[in-house]
Amino acid sequence: MKEREFWALVDEIFGRAYGRSLAQDQRLYRLDSMTVLEALQAGVEPRIVWNVLCDQMEVPDSKRWGKDHNAPPLPAA
């Protein structure tokens, strides 16, 4: 997942204003309590940040990838 795809999903699932607020303020406890922005700036894969955010915000798998998106492949180990 590219970062631009991440932001497109943020906008689609949470709405632009609320999504940007979440990215700035929501602490991701599974990622050392970094915010979304801090995690992305630290180099955490956008797909991982997205999954952690969705888990924390209780977004079901059926809605997590938006209406026209498929889940991107997992990052290489």
TrEMBL record:
InterPro entries the record matches: DUF3046 (IPR021408)
Pfam families xrefs: DUF3046
Full protein name: DUF3046 domain-containing protein
Biological source species: Bombiscardovia nodaiensis
Organism ancestry: Bacteria, Bacillati, Actinomycetota, Actinomycetes, Bifidobacteriales
